[in-house]
Amino acid sequence: MRKPTGSANGKLINFNMMDGMRLGLAACFLIAILFFIKANPAGTGIDSTLLLISAVIGGYMALNIGANDVANNVGPAVGAGALTLLGAILIAVVFESGGALIAGGDVVKTIKKGIIDPAMIADTQTFIWVMMAALLSAAIWLNIATYSGAPVSTTHSIVGGVLGAGIAAGGWGIADWGQVQKIVASWVISPAMGGIIAASFLYAIKRSVMYKTDMKQAAQKVIPILMAIMAWAFTTYLILKGIKKIIKIEFPIAVSIGFGAAVLTYIIVRTLITKRAERIENTKEGIDKLFMIPLIVGAAFLSFAHGANDVANAVGPLAAINDAVINGGAHTKAHIPLWVMLIGALGIAVGLALYGPKLIKTVGNEITELDKIRAFCVALAAAITVIIASQMGLPVSSTHIAVGGIFGVGFLREHLHTGYNRNLDKIRTHMREEENQDEETIQAFIEKFDAASMVEKKQFLRELKQKAIREELSWSQRRRVKKAYKAKLVERSMLLKIIAAWVFTVPVAGLLSAALFFMIRGILLP
Questions:
Q1: Which residue ranges in the chain fall short of pLDDT 70?
Q2: Which of 293, 318, 373, 456 gives 20 to 30 Å between its CA and that of 20?
Q3: pLDDT for position 104
Q4: Domain presence at residue 108
Q5: DSSP 111
């Protein structure tokens, strides 16, 4: 009896050691930032304690972005089996860091989304305290969410932080409540758009490929079109959100370049798919394999664009503090020094490597079961939703879109499975009561029905309906039958946890930021 107990304790010790190692490596990264800033990398000769502290907080924020937000880009690919956990981390580290350093830009808005007016902040010192409180509160909230296994929006976290500290410093009138209302609306709009678009693509693929008798032939016609749409979406997405800080390209030109990429992709993929289709089986598993490479490419593109676009969440307030310390005053825009961008890029990479696996598993495995086709639909929906929302001027969250897409394909699966189970029940009832068939004959027919094409299934169900089965059920009986055959393919506890985390992000980050602002001011006031 002692051996199992020792084994369990060994596992507990091993777990604690791994936890301690991660914490130690994260602490080493933050200490390295401290020494790095002390070495005066900017060459300004300015020795500011506030800048030192802010740089460490910025690194802490970057760690938490890597631990939480990046999972949305690579999680579906891991859940679908297109990437291993290690492979996903390597791809995300390379492309997130590359996006941040190559296309992160050299100027950032100091007040994210323009939700407060910096002119209403009394002085430079108060502005620095506001930015410090906003950055730290957002980082702490992300840390709590990551520990709880809830993917949340880093953009909304920093918005809540800036809003809370800004109100604490300048009163209620400092906030742009119109922008705040748009952000609140995006809690519903982002996941709904992502879910509807992802489910629509999945349903279209099922109807045009997976429900056909000759799936291989159907795939050769449909998949090149899907890859062309993917090329258009990701090229346009990358131009609008990934390299916009290197070169400004207007939306019509971006769409035109994306269309050119789509045409080229269609020509290339059509030839490749024809050759590849000869080597796969005419099964769902065989068709699913055709989506592996596009899914990996999609994860890489999403990571690059995320690194370029969202690195400002980590370094924006830090860049603002650096600008205020060097130049004085609160400005709406600030130059991003290379050393600041490095902190953001490296922090995201380190945070992902140390703590990212937990959220990657949550997004990839714990909401609903993903195969490569479903994960492809989620990635495609994320890119298309961001493009649409950008043109509509909606402040959507890439996290909300991706997670909404996963729920969308999950609930579509539930709907289709429930309807299918109900049809099987009708067949069993008919064969048992009307035709007096034994269970072996019924099971053999069910297997034949399951292997039939969608056209053949519809024809049989039509004939079944015309025979008017003696199935006069009361309302309560119909409800019980419906409940009995309702497939539960989406984890409800995860749905409730994630919705709660999304709703609480802005208010909790805001309240925490206001409290931190008053604490920082109380400590630093003479």
A1: 1-15, 41-47, 103-114, 242, 244-246, 309-310, 312-314, 329-334, 393-395, 423-424, 426, 428-438, 442, 445-488, 526
A2: 318
A3: 65
A4: yes
A5: S
| pTM of the entire predicted model | 0.81
Query: CA-to-CA distance for 402 and 436, rounded, in angstroms?
Result: 50
Q: Which amino acid is at 493?
A: S
Interval 375-410: pLDDT, tens: 999 988 988 888 887 777 666 777 888 899 999 999
The tally of domains found in the chain comes to: 1
Place of tokens 């492309």: 95
pLDDT at 378: 92
Q: Which residues form the domain of 276?
A: 25-414+490-524
Please name which of 220, 209, 305, 224 lies closest in space to residue 262, comparing C-alpha atoms.
Answer: 224
Reference 40, options 466, 401, 271, 325; nearest CA is 325
For residue 475, the model assigns a pLDDT of: 43
Q: How far apart are CA 255 and CA 234, in angstroms?
A: 10
At 5 the pLDDT is 43
DSSP secondary structure letter of residue 47: -
Helix (H), strand (E), coil (C) string for 300-337: HHHHHHHHHHHHHHHHHHHHHHHHHHHHCCCCCEEECC
In three-state secondary structure terms, 518 is helix
- Is residue 52 domain-resident? yes
Residue 430 lies in a domain: no
Q: What is the pLDDT of residue 407?
A: 93
- What pLDDT was estimated at residue 414? 86
Determine phi and psi for 335, rounding to 5 degrees. Answer: -70, 140
Provide φ and ψ at 474, rounded to 5°.
Answer: -75, 170
The DSSP H or E segment spanning 468 is none
Q: How far apart are the first and last CA of the chain?
A: 64
Q: Looking at the domain assignment, is residue 445 inside a domain?
A: no
The SS3 call for residue 108 is: strand
**Tokens encoding 132:** 């410090």
Cβ-Cβ contacts under 8 Å for 432 (sequence gap 6 or more): 442
CB contact at 8 A, 164 and 134: yes
